[in-house]
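User: Show me a protein chain along with its predicted structure.
Assistant: Here is one chain, sequence first, then structure tokens.
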Amino acid sequence: MTIPKEGETIQVHSYKHDGNIHRVWQETTVLKGTRNIVIGANERTLVTEADGRTWLTREPSICYFHAEHWFNIICMLREDGVYYYVNMSSPFVYDHHSLKYIDYDLDVKVFPDMSYLILDEDEYAEHKKKMNYPEVIDQILKRNLDKLLMWIKQRKGPFAPDFIEVWTSRYRFYKQVKKSD
């Protein structure tokens, strides 16, 4: 697998289990790229939905993707604090300047005080039937949801106090570099 280079701009592609595209983020700046972890950032980036609708993200976001964990974490930087949106998903793959993953419907919204809500359980149940998610996927997602909730409680990974500070600083650096090009 190729690895995205720090500073380069990539797309993020979200698919559904049946192989259909779900959503595409047009531009994400790579802040860190290894075989296992990609940390990116975007702000006011164009997002295209499967049905062709488009919209712009509202606030700067730091995005955390892992090649072994079945979730990805979007850290949205708002005036009143950092909000996190977690997609329960397949681990990422990187191919042709695009980071790709399968979205498995379940989401977790985490508030600045680290309280959280598990979202879209009904959508998960519906798609599990419709797209015939294998039982092993269900088990993997449940284990990873437990791991994620532990990360939130322990303030680990993107939930660690210094994570946002480190990566927003790096993002500001790359934005300055792009302005001077």
